[in-house]
Automatic annotation (TrEMBL):
Biased composition (Basic and acidic residues): 43-63, 70-82
Polar residues biased stretches: 454-465, 577-589
Ranges of biased composition (kind: Low complexity): 545-556
Protein name in UniProt: LCP family protein required for cell wall assembly
InterPro entries: LytR/CpsA/Psr_C, LytR/CpsA/Psr_CW_biosynth, LytR_CpsA_psr
All residue ranges annotated as the Cell envelope-related transcriptional attenuator domain in the record: 181-350
Spans annotated as Disordered: 1-94, 435-468, 541-589
Annotated keywords: Membrane, Transmembrane, Transmembrane helix
Homology family: Belongs to the LytR/CpsA/Psr (LCP) family.
Species assigned in the record: Actinophytocola algeriensis
Residue ranges of domain LytR/CpsA/Psr regulator C-terminal in the record: 459-543
PANTHER family linked to this entry: POLYISOPRENYL-TEICHOIC ACID--PEPTIDOGLYCAN TEICHOIC ACID TRANSFERASE TAGU (PTHR33392:SF6)
Length: 589
């Protein structure tokens, strides 16, 4: 049966219109119930809250526009027509730690074949915002889609309502002095060629050009534009506090998108935002994520107080884990590694397929958390896009960090910042697509050359350590990477005596090439459950091939997960410009 659900009207940042039988959930509170996020309210600062950069109004503002007559923002709702029954489409269409989890959760709703009438209800209640303009740059030739995911250090919810004192205390957030900074910035590039998605992290203190404001830390772009818009809307006579927050947040998001586009050269297609409370609820819903720390931490600012070693974190503890930067050897860079490791754990857990089944309590909690805390751009058909994400990437996301120089750049007005060369960043981002194009054009072996690297680049190898030798899987993964294979997951497995290489159905050649790179003295077998282009290596107690000593591991030289080396703009200075990466046990600073 074919049914169609028409798109409900969207007003600014709000929910799609529900059917007439539902209560109107977007009724704003009385005007005196809101708290201005863009300016000082006179509230006390929690002793755990560090001093944050106060965001000034722009020095040379543009001429103020005439009062808006358009009703594009906060229109009164027309009487809705009865909604036809939804249509299930058989054709799949076009998917910080505080951001990716929401979309991984949405993907699972589709991937598990959950009831479509439930999905229809899910999308009705998503909060949306009109923040995407036409990209100012040419899109990648392969049709890649770029998504900006933002974790907000916000003391309001997605509807513009202030968090209660109890919620602030629970989150160790304190009462912020007009703070609306973006704690987490990750651009997800989704290729259209079946390759893995790539998450590109941008340090919050990156010193970049913010259009209209000059050079400042990138995490202040949102707040600068929001504060200007907030003052302008007040002068236009808007008095409803929830409306002021929603509309000014929308202006902040637009400026952040513009800043990221100028920095990376990428055209942002979609936008997603989640706040502190949302991250708390979502991580609780999925039962937390397993992480590992190299050393114990006790940070009064973030509330991170953890022992060394493996542990499961959810809720407040998970939030503290991804927020901490004080007391870490490399500050924000170490925090980025934590966020990447945490998101990788989320992806692995969600896509395992074991945690979510139709009608489960976990699924209900996850849906409720996403609906009340995540903001999407209004033109994003998230369910249709989720189908494509599963189809073309299998949910795999490879995380990287933009190239940077010193993390202690002294600025005139913003304190210590992270040095950024925009040219290097643009080259880095464009290379994420160009490398795939180059690989496609390199199918013909060169005269007198060896085409093994071309073949190997099409095979992703997951390496799992089934021994008690620490660092073995990481070392072997580095050996295979040097042979041209794409690094996949590197983790541990249940103990076993023998080493085995498992390949996808009909791809024995790929398995043989991996086995040859490991010395040839390993068993090769087919695994029908593996996706095309993938090989899994289980390292048993008998493994004595390349990398067996564990001394070839390149831990500490990469971007956190992919093993790629960061670009060092400091002129060969000390390794402080690079964060220590997870060791074989997955432990981080």
């Amino acid at each position: 049966m074919n049914y169609r659900r028409p798109d409900g009207p969207v007003s600014g940042r709000g929910r799609q219109q529900p059917p007439p039988s539902r209560d109107d959930r977007r009724t704003p509170p009385p005007a005196n119930s809101g708290r201005v996020v863009g300016g000082r309210t006179g509230g006390r600062r929690d002793r755990h809250e560090p001093e944050t950069e106060r965001v000034p109004r722009r020095d040379d503002p543009k001429p103020r526009p005439a009062p808006r007559t358009s009703d594009a923002r906060w229109q009164p709702r027309p009487e809705p027509a009865p909604r036809p029954r939804p249509r299930r489409t058989s054709r799949p269409g076009l998917t910080g730690a505080k951001t990716v989890v929401a979309f991984l959760s949405v993907l699972v709703l589709v991937g598990t074949g959950y009831y479509w009438n439930r999905i229809d209800s899910f999308t009705d209640d998503l909060i949306t915002a009109d923040v995407i303009d036409a990209p100012p740059v040419e899109k990648p030739a392969d049709g890649a889609i770029d998504i900006l995911m933002v974790g907000m250090d916000s003391r309001t919810d997605a509807q513009g309502h202030p968090l209660s004192d109890e919620q602030l205390a629970m989150l160790s957030a304190g009462v912020a002095d007009g703070e609306q900074n973006t704690d987490t910035l990750i651009m997800i590039r989704i290729p259209n060629d079946g390759g893995p998605a790539v998450g590109v992290s941008m340090p919050r203190d990156s010193y970049v050009d913010i259009p209209g404001y000059g050079q400042h830390k990138i995490n202040s772009a949102y707040a600068r534009a929001k504060n200007d818009a907030l003052a302008r809307f007040r002068e236009e006579g808007v008095s409803d506090e929830a409306k002021l927050q929603v509309d000014s947040n929308q202006e902040g998001a637009k400026k952040l998108i513009e800043t990221v586009q100028e920095l990376t050269g990428a055209g942002i297609d979609h936008y997603a935002e989640v706040n502190l409370l949302g991250f708390y609820d979502i991580t609780n819903a999925i039962g937390g994520i397993d992480v590992c720390l190299n050393a114990p931490v006790d940070d009064e600012y973030s509330g991170a107080r953890f022992p060394a070693g493996p542990q499961n974190l959810a809720g407040v503890q998970a939030l503290a884990f991804v927020r901490q930067r004080h007391g870490l050897p490399n500050g924000d860079l170490d925090r980025i590694v934590r966020q990447q490791v945490f998101m990788s754990g989320m992806a692995k857990k969600v896509f395992s397929g074991d945690m979510l089944t139709p009608g489960s309590e976990t699924l209900d909690k996850l849906q409720a958390a996403i609906q009340k805390s995540v903001v999407l751009d209004q033109d994003w058909n998230i369910m249709q896009f989720a189908q494509q994400m599963i189809g073309i990437t299998g949910g795999k996301v490879e995380f990287k960090t933009i190239p940077h120089g010193t993390i202690d750049l002294q600025t005139e007005s913003d304190g210590s910042a992270v040095e950024i060369d925009p040219t290097e960043v643009k080259d880095f981002v464009s290379g994420l697509i160009a490398k795939k194009d180059d690989d496609k054009g390199a199918g013909e072996p060169q005269p007198g050359g060896d085409d093994s690297s071309v073949d190997n680049s099409k095979t992703t190898v997951n390496v799992r350590n089934a021994t008690d030798r620490g660092g073995l899987a990481g070392s072997v993964a580095d050996v295979l990477g040097a042979e041209g294979f794409v690094k996949g997951e590197v983790d541990n497995a249940d103990p076993r005596d023998s080493t085995v290489v498992r390949h996808a159905a009909g791809e024995k050649d790929a398995g043989d090439r991996v086995a040859a790179a490991l010395g040839g003295n390993v068993q090769v077998e087919e695994d029908a459950n593996l996706p095309v282009g993938s090989v899994t290596v289980l390292l048993g107690a008998d493994y004595e091939g390349p990398g067996a000593s564990g001394s070839d591991s390149a831990a500490g030289s990469g971007d956190g997960l992919s093993g790629k080396r960061l670009v060092d703009l400091s002129g060969g200075g000390p390794a402080r410009t690079q964060a220590q990466q997870p060791n074989q046990g997955g432990c981080v600073n």
